[in-house]
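Q: Convert this sequence to structure tokens.
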Amino acid sequence: MAHAIVGLNYLGIFAASCSESPLGDRIKRESGESPEQSRCCKPIRICPIKATAQKVGRRTERVSQKTCKTCDSYAAAILEERISGIAEKAFSPHSIPLLLRLLPGFSNLFYFTTMEKNKCLFLAVLMGLATVSCQNDEKNANEYTLDAYGLLTEPESVFLGTDTTKVAGYYYAQDITIGEFVVAHSFGAWGFGEGFTYSNCTDDTTPGYNNMSAITKKGVKGDTYFISNAGGWDTPARISFKDGKAYKAIECFVTNSTYAYLALNGNDGVGVAKTDWGKDDWFKLTVTGFNGDSETGKVEFLLADGLNIVDSWQQIDLRKLGLVTRIVFTLSSTDNGEWGMNTPCYFCLDRLTVSE
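A:
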């Protein structure tokens, strides 16, 4: 860190006014100018990030001619010497983090042109690292994203488990492990049961629970996505982690299933859902985080807000959930009957992202 501070101090000396500083006096002496002649000098503004400089004795071309040529030429020469001296000192593993945080603030203080090739390379690399560093500090952490791209080889297909050893109510329970994630899944002889499965179906017109399609007909970045029956009694729509550790929730993408979307528009295929869905109705997804047995937070998202019914992939910020060992998804609606919610308890999920 000490090296970084020294390097930045070297760069910073050129922000001082050359006409009223030791640097200005030295310029006057070596140029042969009188104090009156050099009163035109302004604060020298040279940028080691935006350009390069020439060696001693050569003039520096300025974009803005607000300083005298003598000052420019002399300051460029001094800076060229300083850069050659600090390159090795400042560019070390211990000083890089500080440099990356502070250099963007210097980009408007200094400007110079054409330096030797090795100096240019040093500055170009440093600028590139600074740009990447400033994008998002969280990118330094290990991130894991749940997706099912490439897991289905046949078109218009849905994953169904095959292990019938564990019974869960009317279904067989067989969780799906994909990368770091464990996705709750159950199935029966008639097809998908509760929790999640993944699908590449593209039917956006057929009503009914047999339609395992997203209304978008594809995932966020590929043809495959997750579809959930989040109303199950025995297999909740739950996602956990195979190592049992807690991870920071970051985001996910959601949209309506074709089954729910058509029902919200008055056609569920069986005549249970209301046909006069109105401006005061809503269909809500609630995402709840847990760390062990403790709830960490909730995030809510409206899949239908009155007549505004979601038909594209929507990003949800999950950082409010904090550190989680599992995430549970539930659905609720203004359309309810004697046996519970009349709106189909289905939604689609893609690209759930967490970090260590």
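Helices lie at 2-12, 22-31, 69-90, 96-106, 117-135, 258-264.
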